[in-house]
Amino acid sequence: MATSISREGSLEAPTRHPLDWQSADFYDQASLDKELERVFDICHGCRRCVSLCQSFPTLFDLVDESESMEVDGVAKDDYWKVVDHCYLCDLCYMTKCPYVPPHEWNLDFPHLMLRAKAVKYRQGNVKRRDRILTSTDTVGSLAGIPVVNGLVNAVNASSLGRQALQAVLGVHKDARVPPYVSDTLRKTEKARIGRSATGEAAGPTTGKVALFTTCYGNYNEPGVNADLIAVFEHSGIPVTLPEKEQCCGMPKLELGDLEAVKAAKDANIPMLKRLVDDGWDIVAMIPSCVLMFKQELPLMFPEDADVQSVKAHIFDPFEYLMLRHKHGKLNTDFKKPLGNVIYQASCHQRVQNIGQKTREVLALVPDTTVEIIERCSGHDGTYAVKEEYYASAMKIVRPVAGRVEKAAPDHFGSDCPMAGAHIAHALGKDGEQQHPLSLLRLAYGL
């Protein structure tokens, strides 16, 4: 008599199923609990992801400390402790889990956590702090007003101010909170909005790009975007800015506010689609924002042709530069070596499956060695600043910071500027991190 034996996966490329977020079952608590128990039981028996983030140690401790020492001994209310530690980095799905689709167990841990966050949000179980921190356009616009800007940055720099932030908002007093600028990128580069240009096509690239500035790249570190513009135009790639834009929706996705994600999609996609139709490719220097348009929105709206079109024309900056280089269209006239560079490859860049494009570009600079750290920084936008998660974020970043410290490089940073700042914070070297785009500009002597 033939028997069916479940085999381990990872022998085939992972398949991501569309997110059925508009169905009634998606928000049904009993259905969610059943799926959480099924998946947690598989994770408990595997435990390969224990080193990735705090969700898995939390789950395994709950199981090991239960009376039965199995998932059925864990109280359903304690499931939320696992959910709250997940920041949807996707590394478990992409790099560790042997049971992802097309395996018959069909395990997608990040999207199950997203479903749980959406249920929690719909139930109204969300802190005011989290609503504020994920409203990046609103916070950035207010903090960018010159008088308000000075006050916000002064509070951020003051010990008493940081204690007040913790008491009022639950932002940990020791966490690194980014400064805000009044001269945003969209203000200083507004002449680029609506410009016309001709690009030289090469491979899948048109040779001209629209820069999705991102909230962080507009309000917090516009200098990195300025570096991107300088580097691209040095290789003959004209850069424009969208007429208008709003947050890509990733912070609201991580909160579980999927209707807000839809609203962001409805605002951004038509504008980006018009740029694509006019021959512009799209780049963004924040990996999470690129991933939002490359993966999350296409999975939420698989039938939306405009979403799929934008997906096909948005690129990580270093992915774009390497595509140009393969066709002889990248300026390689570097003026200055970089020496020893070590950088953390951000999670949301790694799961784009584009390879080590940042390393490949930086390695073109003569007399430069590049070391990659492929491990999560533990920042995730808002996770690392929250009072209850700061210690966990610092625990996660510690091995990364240790690697940087041991290497004693000439330059260090991350593809994600927030992750780079978090690593510098862990090293006690706030502000010393350098984004790879900034390093490339340095190498060009621009």
Task: Name the features.
3 domains; 22 helices; globular
Could you characterize what this model shows?
The chain is mostly helical and 446 residues long. 49% of the residues lie in helices and 6% in strands. The chain is built from 22 helices and 7 strands. The protein has helices at 29-46, 55-64, 79-85, 91-96, 109-122, 128-133, 136-143, 146-157, 159-169, 185-188, 215-219, 222-234, 250-255, 258-277, 287-300, 305-312, 317-326, 347-350, 357-362, 390-407, 417-426, 436-444; strands at residues 209-211, 239-240, 281-283, 314-315, 339-344, 368-373, 411-414. Helix 8 (146-157) packs across helix 9, helix 12 (222-234) packs across helix 22 and helix 14 packs across helix 16 (305-312). The longest helix has 20 residues, at 258-277. Mean pLDDT is 88; it is low at 1-5.
